[in-house]
Each structure stands twice: as C-alpha cells, then as structure tokens.
C-alpha cells in the first residue's frame, strides 16, 4: 500500500512500498495530467528524462492506458539528452523510443528529439529555437510571469549526486538564467557532452515530478527535500533548486530512497 501523499514546502511526497506500486501511481498521475491538459488546452506537452524513469513508465504501454490515453495529443520533449547518436546505448531518445514511444500511437511529428548530427552547442541552440516556435503556436504554453515555456509536465530522475536532467552540482550551468536550453561538455557522469533544460524552464512548468528509487539515493533525497540546514550545506544541489514558481512538484519515491527523510518522520508525529 502507498503511504498517503505528504504535503511539504518542497512539494508532495509520495512514498511507495514497491517499484510496482510506484510505477502504477506514476502512470496514473501522468494519465490524469494528460487528460486534464487535453481537456484544457487540446494538447499535452511532456518532457522526459533518461535513466531509470523510463522503465517505471512502462505500464503506459499496457491496458488500460494504451487505449485510454489520448496519444495523438501528446507532444514529447526531453529535459536532457546526451550528445550521442540516436541509436547509441547512452541516448535518452533511444531509451524512450524503445521503452515507450514505439509501443504507443504517438504522432511522429510530435516527437521533438534533439538533433544528433550537430555539436552540443548547435544542438542546444536548435532545440531552443524549436521550442520557441512551439511556444508561439501555444503547442507549449507560456509562463504568465516570464517568457519561459510552461510545459504541462516535466519528468525528472535524480542521480546519487543530486543531479537532475543534466544539471550537475556546483556546475556553472545552474546559473544560466537567459537560455531555455543549454549544453555542457564536462559532465561528471559520462557521456561528457549533454544538452539540458535550464532551471528557469524546469521551474516554469505546470507540473514537475521527480522520480527517485533506491537506497543509494537516500542521502541526496534527504538533502534535496529536508529542512535541516540543507540550504547552508548544499545551496547548489540541483534537485533542491527544483522549485516550480507556480506549478506543482511531486516526488515519487520508494521506501529505500525515502529512508533518510526527516520530513516524513515529522509528518507522522
Ligand atoms: O544521466 C542521467 O541521469 C539521471 C538519473 O538517472 P537514473 O538512472 O539514476 O535514474 C537522468 O534523470 C537523466 O535524464 C540522465 O541523463
């Protein structure tokens, strides 16, 4: 059984007993947001990440979601991508295509993957341009407090070091305020060259979900969420900087990932 969602200053925490249960809750959440967005705007603009997240979304390819989700209205983006060929094992596009996109009736022209024939800098520029065009036509909504795109949902994973998308701790990329999409060439986690949404874009989304599993990430989850002087100890922990300005933030955690969370102890007192 899932523990009930706990509402904190750092968003809603949904802690699950098993990956099976987390995965069911995650796909229900995505399907509900898709339905609400299609009803309100006629489309659903969703940004994916790579890593363990995609496997946890696998139930979307099965009944009932395979039939009930309005796939034709989905516009797919990536919160980050590695600068490798699209058929490379490290490609976030390939991961999503093999695990999800090839199994549901997404419209191919709605899949906005990152150009793999360009340099990191060129690919980031081009991707930013593509998103600008889609904001102009409101396929992607726009923030009412900045000119940033307002994705209906951005799905993030988190590394053991607290990175989200390709925003790594203590990296100058965390300071980027102007660009929507940028690039790095020195990722501490291979491959070194990556394209990433910037924090202003992530924090302008209507909904952001961070999906984290496994005990190896428990310390980073604690530092990202708890209110125990973490602002002093790790001001540039990317996962802690995920703070949607007006949108909703939900953390999908399994029990091992949540095992060092103080926020949960306080909530059960
Ligand atoms: O390198 C990356 O890592 C993170 C976390 O991946 P995980 O396998 O530990 O869940 C991922 O969210 C990001 O998209 C990816 O490029």
UniProtKB/TrEMBL annotation:
Alphabetized PANTHER family for the sequence: 6-PHOSPHOGLUCONOLACTONASE, 6-PHOSPHOGLUCONOLACTONASE 1-RELATED
Pfam families: Glucosamine_iso (PF01182)
Record's keyword terms, sorted: Hydrolase
GO cellular component: cytoplasm
UniProt entry tagged with the keyword Acetylation: no
Xref: InterPro entries: 6-phosphogluconolactonase_DevB, 6PGL, Glc/Gal-6P_isomerase, NagB/RpiA_transferase-like
Pathway: Carbohydrate degradation; pentose phosphate pathway; D-ribulose 5-phosphate from D-glucose 6-phosphate (oxidative stage): step 2/3
Tree of life domain: Eukaryota
Name of the protein in question: Probable 6-phosphogluconolactonase
Protein family: Belongs to the glucosamine/galactosamine-6-phosphate isomerase family. 6-phosphogluconolactonase subfamily.
GO biological process, one term: carbohydrate metabolic process
Species annotation: Acer yangbiense
